[in-house]
Every structure is written in C-alpha cells, then in structure tokens.
C-alpha cells in the first residue's frame, strides 16, 4: 500500500470523516438579481432583444429556480429591459412558484396547447414580436425548432455570449462554495486510499466514496471513476474494470456538489512499491500539471495553458499533439454549476484568461498497455494570477502530503 495511508476498514475510514458544510452561505437573492442585470447589459451590447433560458443550470444561475429539463418547455424570458417572465405547464404552476428565488409572471400552457406559440405571444406583448432572440445554447433542439416553426418572424441566435459571458467569471460567493466542495472531495480521496487492499473491486470503492461524500455533507458522489492497473490508461474507464493487485497503478476521479457547485479531483498513486517506470511517468505528469499552472496568466489565451502542458510531455517523447502514448484530451475545463463548462484549456480556445475563471488542470498521460497518470486539481484566476483550490499531489509515495 502507498506509504502513510491504508489499513483501515470501511467503517474505520468513514469514522474519520464528518460534516464539512457548516457555515456555508448560499447564493443570495441580491446576487441572482445582479446576474440578471448583467445579462441585460450584455443583451443590449449584443443587439439582442431578449434571452430564453431553459430549465437546467442556466435557469438556476440566473433565477435561483431549480428545475430539470424534460420534454416539456420550462424556462424564463429575460428581456433586454424590464422584468423577466417564466413559461411553464399550467399543472406545474404552484410547484414552480415554490422553487422560485427571483419572482416573475408565469405564463402557462395546457398539455394540448403549444408552448412555442405562447413564447411568441410573450415576445409580442413585450414589444419584441419581430425581435432578435438569444437562445439558451443548452436547450434541446426541439425547443428552438418548435419556436422557429411557431414564430417564423423571430430571429433566433445563440445566447452563449450572454450565458457564458455571465457564468465564466465566478463571484466570491461562488468561489467559496467551490472551495468547500473541493475540500470535501479531497477528504474523501484520503479516506478512500486508506481502505484499499488486494482483491478489492471497483464497485466496493465506488460505494465507499459515495458514502464518504454523504458523511462530509454532500448528497453522495456526483460521479466516480475508479481504475486499477492497465485500466488507468483509459481516461473514462473500461467496460469490465479489474480488481486491485499489488503493484497496480490506482486512479480515482470523483466529485460532489454543494449548493449546485461542483468539485472534481483525480489522484493517481500505486498500491505497493512504485516501479521506476511508474515513478518516471508520475513525475512527468506532475511537471506537465505545473507547467499548465505557470502558463495560466491574465490576458493570455486559454489555449496557451494546454500548449504548455503538452510541450512538457512532447519533449519527453510522448504525443505529438493528441496522439497516444501521450495526452489525448484537453488539459482542462471550466467548472461551476456544470462540471464541464466554458471556457476550456484546449489549444484552439482563444478566450483570454480573466479574474474569476475556474479550471481543472489535468494533462493526463495515457500509455495503453501499461497504465495512465492523471493528476487533477483546480485553480481560479485572481488579479495576481492562478491560485489552487487544492494543492497538487506531493509525490507518488505521499499523494496527499501526509508525510511532509
């Protein structure tokens, strides 16, 4: 077992954890209102008359209303000027009102009526019957297609400039929620390492990690990837994962949500004494992660961070580009209410790095037939440059810094 961790039963490991959510402050109604005001400023700057936001993370971000997307149209219209208006099935009216943080008029439709025609009626009443309307880029095709057919006089365009324009840069309150969520998941990682034993199977570790996330105050794991041995060479796992053997590389990638905000941390280490090859590639991965962090400077394009990490691996003979053995995916992704959101640390993303942006840093090294190493921590941009949410792994022998 990795030096300094291990040897605990499931119950002993869970007993080391406790609720970590004390003192957490939810996003306030005032902040939701400020987000809407910013969206309206961006609408005017983009020459858009209104923005349609569909159920999902965008709806929550702007209104505080938690509602999951389905085949029924539920959302909100944010006009460039004036109060927002909701649209929802009539039978959901009272339920929807109970979930609202930002109140607004609710326009309802019955099951035998068209919500798309109702959408057009709302825009006409607001004075935008022939307007240029931004559409939530996460909305299903059937919604924009239904509106297009019912309201051909409307010009529908992507609303990403507004949605991403607001969400890419996190507020202090958002950063605090994300920090706590990541602290919770890191504690879970440490506990998970302590239960590993020869013969343990992936399903047992996944079940423990879910229980551990609940113990620290989350509603369980929002996702969990556990891989051993050669399986670790495949970023999102394999169909039939193997059980743990002595000398196996261990890769665990998991996260949770706190007030809707995500954590996402990966740790890679070895069960037993690492081989020289495992040590070599682990250290190379750590160098690539460090290079990405150092390259993340205000004003530089997101793509430059990806190139910095990739150049470290290519200099060691891996790749080139996205070829394996090497780094087959982007170096990182934005994170917030969605686990993957804009912008992205990928070579062709020219978005300038700005204060408040948050990213994963995970330039995974994949060597099919041998093993893979992914060290994933997240950072956010400050006026002084990047800052880690969680400190990177210390060493392959001491991945959690227990011995330092």
UniProtKB/TrEMBL annotation:
Keywords: Aminopeptidase, Hydrolase, Metal-binding, Metalloprotease, Protease. GO terms for molecular function: aminopeptidase activity. InterPro entries: Creatin/AminoP/Spt16_N, Creatinase/aminopeptidase-like, Creatinase_N, Pept_M24, Peptidase_M24B, Peptidase_M24B_aminopep-P_CS. The keyword Electron transport does not apply. Residues 177-382 form the Peptidase M24 domain. Residues 35-168 form the Creatinase N-terminal domain. It comes from the Bacteria. Transmembrane segments: none annotated. The keyword Hydrolase applies. Coiled coil: none annotated. Pfam families: Creatinase_N, Peptidase_M24. Belongs to the peptidase M24B family. PANTHER family: AMINOPEPTIDASE (PTHR46112), AMINOPEPTIDASE YPDF (PTHR46112:SF3). This is Aminopeptidase P family protein.
